[in-house]
Design goal:
By secondary structure, this protein is an alpha/beta fold. It has one domain: 3-Layer(aba) Sandwich (Rossmann fold). The chain is 27% helix and 30% strand. It contains four helices and eight strands, in the order E-H-E-H-E-E-H-E-E-E-H-E. The strands form two sheets. A five-stranded parallel beta sheet has the order 3-2-4-5-6. A three-stranded antiparallel beta sheet has the order 1-8-7. Strand 4, helix 3 and strand 5 form a beta-alpha-beta unit. Helix 1 packs across helix 2. The chain is globular.
């Protein structure tokens, strides 16, 4: 068995997609008032940073950006070992009455988003929560759908969709990794 890698989005396409997503977020909320953007650790945080920077530059505002680490809220915590690595959760101020946009890299089963919603509830009660994902690969196990989608990708159950971000991986791209029998 070998792995076949296909680039779905190169760096320029990722940037164009994030720019479009940023515009959709602002448009769907009628502006940036009471808007908070929260990325899910790991790559969702870097994508949220890019989206916030694009919104701030185009609208001349400062949208608060937060980070969620959902590790301790996962429903499969017992399967990831006795010492899970927990990252930082940082919510910028009170979220009560705000519109919170959760940003993640890939939406698959919906379990990561369910965990993010559980954790976010510990910080208050937003007026609205939206979901923005760079990639929707289908295969949902829970009834969770994104409000803003960068790109839909057809992926088989054994495939992987990897989002690479400059800060962590040295380049920006989205690749589909498929296992093939030869």
């Amino acid at each position: 068995m070998t792995e076949h890698t296909e680039t779905i989005l190169d760096a320029n396409a990722v940037e164009r997609t994030l720019r479009r997503m940023a515009g959709e977020i602002v448009e769907s909320n009628g502006g940036t008032d009471n808007l908070i953007i929260v990325g899910i650790q790991r790559r969702g945080v870097q994508l949220a940073d890019r989206i916030v920077a694009l919104i701030n530059a185009s609208d001349g505002v400062t949208v608060p950006r937060g980070a969620l680490d959902i590790t301790l809220y996962r429903d499969d915590l017992q399967t990831i070992g006795p010492r899970p690595v927990v990252g930082a959760t940082d919510i910028p101020g009170a979220i009560d009455g705000s519109t919170v946009v959760i940003v993640d890299d890939v939406l698959f089963t919906g379990r990561t988003i369910r965990a993010a919603l559980d954790e976010l509830a510990d910080f208050g009660r937003p007026a609205r929560i939206e979901l923005a994902v760079l990639i929707d690969r289908g295969g949902r196990e829970l009834p969770i759908q994104p409000d803003v989608v960068g790109r839909k990708v057809e992926a088989r159950p054994g495939d992987r969709v990897d989002v690479l971000v400059e800060d962590l991986d040295g380049r920006s791209a989205v690749v589909l990794v498929s296992k093939r029998f030869e």
